[in-house]
Amino acid sequence: MPRASLVVQIALGAALVLQLLAPLTLAAEPAYISIIIDDIGHSPSAGKRAINLPADLTYAVIPDAMHATQLARYAHESGKEVMLHMPMENVHRRPMGSLALTSGLTTDQFVSNFTNAVERVPFAIGINNHMGSALTQEPGAMALFMSLVRQHQLYFVDSRTTPMTVASDMAQRQDIRTASRDVFLDNERNLFAIDQQFRKLIRKARQKGSAIGIGHPYGVTLEYLERALPMMQAENVQIIPVSDMLMRRNALRQLAAKSSDSAEQVAQPGV
Ligand SMILES: [Zn+2]
């Protein structure tokens, strides 16, 4: 566990201590961020430009998009991580395409949409929700969804398109490797707003040790990232694929559990 969050736990409310310690933590240990580029598959040129960004980003491909399979393959061949970006029912009634998961489907249709989606996105090792502000609130649908995620041995990232999502809770219950989106980079499509959000992502990563951002293959987002990513090393920020981040967090959790076990043994000898 990074030192900063330990300090938060020990000295609750001692914000000043945290502020003073933050630069020390930063010097010792980089902040880790993962960036997922969602909605890959519609435009080959925007998709390729996103995949060619100079860092280990992760690419979430819309299964029924025209160029889904081709771009998933291109990302994989370029050494980049691929996810399946699964369309799900949203509260705004926006169109979701032919493979979307909705509460109106029978179990068979639900399973068949999921299976077809997996087939259209080769090399995917993880999955996140495209939209889904309605479906991710439904425990029953999420339990079924997670059983499929587990069957296909994928990890799951909750895009958190609603604060009422139960998706990552349901993933944890089924012992699926899971994480949640911390920051959307480009809800507002201009360089200034994206810069603000990118800084927020780095700030969160420095506070917690790691953080996950989601962006889209918009021209302005790609232009921003093309400029910002090469500067990350000097900022002591490391960009890692989502699967690496999940592994890292898991290792840190195990380490923290071990050290609290041994602290208990010291505190209670003979118990
Ligand atoms: Zn999406």
Sequence stretches where pLDDT stays below 50 over 5 or more residues = 1-26
Assigned CATH class:
Alpha Beta
The number of helical segments is 10
Q: Just name the CATH architecture.
A: Alpha-Beta Barrel
Order of helices and strands: HHEHEHEHEHEHEEHEHEH
Stated plainly, the CATH topology is called TIM Barrel
Rg measurement, Å? 20 Å
Question: How widely separated are the two ends?
Answer: 26 Å
Q: Strand-residue fraction?
A: 15-25%
Protein structure class:
alpha/beta
The total of beta strands comes to 9
**The CATH H-level homologous superfamily:** Glycoside hydrolase/deacetylase
* Main beta-sheet annotation: 9 strands, parallel
Mean residue pLDDT: 90
Tally the structural domains: 1
Bound molecules: zinc ion
The best one-word shape is globular
Estimate percent helicity. 40-55%
Report on this structure.
- The chain is of the alpha/beta class and 271 residues long.
- It has one domain: TIM Barrel.
- It has helices spanning 3-10, 15-28, 44-51, 68-77, 107-120, 139-151, 167-173, 191-208, 219-228, 242-267; strands at residues 31-40, 58-61, 81-88, 124-131, 155-158, 178-180, 183-184, 210-215, 237-239.
- Helix 1 (3-10) runs antiparallel to helix 2 and helix 3 runs parallel beside helix 4 (68-77).
- The longest helix has 26 residues, at 242-267.
- The model is unreliable at 1-26 (pLDDT under 50).
- The structure holds zinc ion.
- The site of zinc ion has 4 residues, from strand 1.
